[in-house]
Amino acid sequence: MEYKLTFKEFNDALKKDKLLGLKCHDCGKFTCPPKMACQECGSTNLDIVELSGTGKIVTFTVSYVPSEGREPEVPYTVVMVELDEGPWLMGNLTDIDPNNATMEIVGRKVKLGPRSKVLPGDAYSIGAKEAEGGFARPTFVFGQGSKS
Amino acid sequence: MRKVAIIGVGHTPFTFAAEKSCVELFSEAAMDAINESNLRAGDIQAMFIGNVLGDFSEGQLMVQSYCADDIGAFHIPSTRFEGGCASSALAIRDAFIWVASGFYDTVLAGGVETAAKMGTPLATRTFAMGHDSHYEYPAGLTFPGLFAMLAHLYSSKYNVPLEKLKKQMALVSVQSHQYGLHNHLGQFHKEISVDDVLKSFMVCSPLQLYDCCPFSDGAAMVVLASEEKAKELTDKPVYIIGVGQSSSGKLSSQKDYLPRIAAREVSAKQSYTMAGIQPQDVDLCELHDCFSIASIIAAESLGFAEFGKGGELWENGEAAIGGQIPINISGGLKSKGHPIGATGASQVYEIVHQMRGQVEPERQVEGVNIGLTDTLGGDGVVCDLVLQKGW
Predict the structure, then answer these.
(1) Across the interface, which of A61, A76, A124 has its CB nearest the CB of B149?
(2) What is the CA radius of gyration of chain B?
């Protein structure tokens, strides 16, 4: 059975700030990031759709200890965003000084920012042809209705 | 299904960067387990070994095969299990199933890891391979990062102010170091205070250094035998009376349950049901405290506390010796150390030694009849084992 929405297609779209997901014909719910089967009901009866890229922060962390090769990035803010369509998506929050990221940001509205960042591959992902040009990182900024 | 017993156990010291190879560490733990079982290596019919990163730390794949040969268990089937930090628990569960089925009578299971050898940057990178490499690692997810996000989520979901939660988390680490001080096989022998935890450097907010287990090297192995065989070889068999195992997808896919780990609840239920016990029947628990918040989350899903109230176990001394459910009296991953491929087997070793009355007097739990191990790998591979004293 052919994969409906591959990483390559998702990744290439995200690099153009377009967030793709899947809508289930059977239960009507959304899956993002994409999978073979619906995250909610396991059906493979899925359609590719463009998602709004808006949602709210459900949790976060500021990372100070990097993986090998990512030393220049620290500190950085990782957020888990509940998209308006329902799925959770992990990404980065870029319009806050990481040192100022506190529990106050939980619940705040965000939107997929312009110019999603890209993580270049490293020695361990050298075979990942599907990620040619790097791995897009969903990059969020505070959105409408978000108190600053 | 036949009854299956643990008849011998072995455990190297857990350390910072070891000057021994995976094969050497394995062989030391394996020979101790085999000798204690009154067997010879040639009596072992099959081996099940957890090892996660031998290829990165030592450039060694196929370690399971070299391990079997190294101890003189020539040409036996030997299989490597990779389930992240739960690898050796998975290996023991599979070994149990093979013996229970009647296919084998006497097998060796456990695990070995040399992660500290890699140093923090490479170890952090390779551990992060346990996350979704395409959809979540790019954002900068690391293992402390995952549990850091669960800590913030726990605080908001259960309405526990972060300051209060952080103090509860610190108490988890303090207790682990308190008991770990006396564990001669452990990596740290140092008491710490709540203040020490809260003043240690920030790793991934809100987790500070002393909320986090170390990178460690070491091995732990156990010999499993059928009930009939066990009775020939030992008068102190420890029976495996319940097993559970479950898996999960990437962290974001677990949205409906977090900060609870659904896989843990599935696995724990399997093991309790099979054993015919309830959480209150457990006398001693070794659970997966890779980070302080992980202990609180695990204790709740294992049925030892209400959701949102797990931290009170440590606040009120209920996780200590003499409390409602003694947890991680070995010092846990935090103080004893966490050589990931060996951790599940190390937890089993601890329960067996506690039942036999063989641990240091300062941390001996009296009257342990039923013990539980809970081991978590990656974003949500969980294995739970229920052990019962057989004498």
Answers:
(1) A61
(2) 19
